[in-house]
Amino acid sequence: MLLKENIFKREDVVLIGVPCSGVGDPVLEKCKFCTVQTPEDVDHLMPGTSVKIEAAEEEFSTVDRMEALPPEERWEFWKDHFERCIRCYACRQVCPMCYCKRCITEKNQPQWIETSSHLRGNTAWNVIRAFHLTGRCVGCGECERVCPVGIPLNRINAKMAKVVQDQFNYRAGMDSTTSSPFTTFDLGVDTDEGIL
Amino acid sequence: MSGQQKFISGDWRGRMFQALEEDGFQVYMPVKEGELTRFKAGAAAEQMVLECGPTHYPMKEIFFPMSESILNYESRPGKEDEFSVPKIPKQKIAVLGARPCDTSAMGVLDAVFNWDYKDNFYNGRRDQSLIVSVACTESDSRCFCTSVGLGPESTEGSDLLVHEAEGQGAVISSCSEKGAAFMEAHAAIFESVPEAVSTPVAEVAVAVDVDNIKPWLDTHFEDDYWEEISMKCLGCAACSYLCPTCHCFDVVDEADWQHGERRRNYDCCTFGLFTLHTSGHNPRPSGANRWRNRLMHKFKYFPERFDRRACVGCGRCMRVCGAGRDLIEILEHIVSQPVPEAVAEGSVQPAG
Question: What is the pLDDT of residues B303-344, one digit of tens each?
Fold first, then answer.
């Protein structure tokens, strides 16, 4: 994803891959749905074997369960979690795809997002974070892991990944060449009226 | 230190809670919020959760909330501009079930919010508060109160200190005039301390000799170590926002065309934006500079200004760090460094 977004040049980095059989004890949720146990497009691959972990359920089953709830219940769920957010930005700091020199929450002319940790500001922050990472989030799950107040951010990430999968048949981070749905603009393809 | 000692037999939580409510206090207690523990008002006494170590969210947020309104303004065409300062409710606040590390931290906040400016918002809540702490019976590997001159039964910042007496009730010690007055006013629930009463207290091993930290800091403003420890830091504010003594804040305006609100929100020295000037210059451009400041503030600048450390050894910073940053390890490294003798003399700060 970072290559695709021209953050660095491929020739400027040496990639050393490590075969992976899942991490964490118990093994992390993300590893159950991982399809790449041996890293691709690396310069060196460390020796070792890897095993695919079998998941007990479908990848987006948690998202499906959430979607089945009435909007009021979904809002109650997220309201409870967002109210707890302390705006420490650990989720942003750890994210491999968050690299803006000045994050939108720090832009104050105008103030796009309220920095106060009230429900309004917290909801705005968490929604914008999700939107900025849609089609870019590689599902590493670090944001949820580092969240000091336990907000289940992976559920948001999974929802966005599912939307992108359904609408564009695209998975972020699987290669460095396929056009990225939200960062690619092609006059030949994007012919919607009013797009320019 | 602690004055009078009395005993409450049986359900000390319920009795204390009731007595505090009778006195008109809004009682904050540590309760469960999902998986986490946090001080909340409006809960019943039996909802109080006294776990090993401090609560997840610190007690400071009762007196110094993460975000609070400090000014409202309105400007409408044809009308005179209006300004109003939110009033602090007259409601008295009691905290029941704080840990001694959190109550000790109140001394840090009291000092700052009454320093060059007396903060009405903080003091408005604090002045009419009564804090009842509970001595720790357990500790975990992150607790290091004894390393910063405190302990599982420290009384600083507490009006009353509770020692739970294994199923029998609790021994209550008054630690301030307010606490003594409360005991007197509620003499009916207190009795003499029985002879055979066991009040176990946690053993917290001393991890570092904290007196040796400042002499090193005094002489190592420039040191490669700052770069080394900053490499692991994510640069978020989890450690600071959940720290019971961190007190830096930002002031923001949230407004539309006609009216707005000025709010005070937590801010943190680990953010690059914290010291960024409008000129574009940043006196703390790197993580190393910011980490140095964080440690210096707690163990050098604050002691120089207020004669006490800005760390109470609660260990929250280590429990919440997503990068596994370990303050005890850092302090251990610092105290293991040689310090010039001339500096070591007279640099020792009092405990707390």
Answer: 999 999 999 999 999 999 999 999 999 999 999 998 766 555
Distance of CA A123 to CAs A83, A87, B197, B289, Å? 8, 11, 51, 32
Interface of A to B at Cβ within 8 Å reads 80, 84, 86-90, 92-94, 106, 108, 111, 114-118, 121, 142, 145-150
Half-sphere exposure of A77 (CA within 13 A, CB side): 13
Of A90, A108, A118, which has the smallest distance from its Cβ to B236's Cβ?
A90
Of B291, B183, B164, the closest CA to residue B239 belongs to B291
Place of tokens 């972020």: A172
The answer to whether residues A86 and B242 touch, using CB atoms and an 8 Å cutoff, is: yes
DSSP category for residue B299: I
Does residue B181 contact residue B15 with C-beta atoms inside 8 Å?
A: no
Whether residue B276 contacts residue B209, with contact meaning beta carbons closer than 8 Å, is answered with no
Which amino acid makes up residue A127? Answer: V
User: Per the CB < 8 Å rule, is B266 touching A92?
Assistant: no
Q: What ipTM was assigned to the predicted interfaces of this complex? A: 0.91
Q: What is the DSSP letter of B153?
A: T
Q: What is the pLDDT of residues B194-243, one digit of tens each?
A: 988 999 999 999 999 888 999 999 999 999 999 999 999 999 999 999 99
Instruction: Quote the minimal CA–CA distance from A78 to chain B in Å.
Output: 13
Q: SS3 of A16, please?
A: strand
Gap between the terminal Cα atoms of chain A: 25
Beta-sheet strand order (sheet of B36-41): B5-9, B169-174, B160-165, B129-134, B92-98, B25-33, B36-41
Surface-to-core class of residue B184, CB atoms within 10 Å of its CB (0-12 exposed, 13-18 middle, 19+ buried)? exposed
**A114/B252 touch (CB, cutoff 8 Å), yes or no:** yes
Burial A142-171 (b: 16+ CB within 10 A, else e): bbbbbbbbebebbbbbbbbbbebeeeeebe
Q: Which two tokens stand for residue B255?
A: 């407004």
Would you tell me how many other CB atoms lie within 10 Å of the CB of residue A70? 8
**Residue A98 distance to chain B (closest CA, Å):** 12
Distance from CA of B282 to the nearest CA of A (A): 14
Residue of A nearest to B262 (CA): A116
Contact A3, A176 (CB under 8 A): yes
Alpha-carbon distance of B290 to B312, in angstroms, equals 21
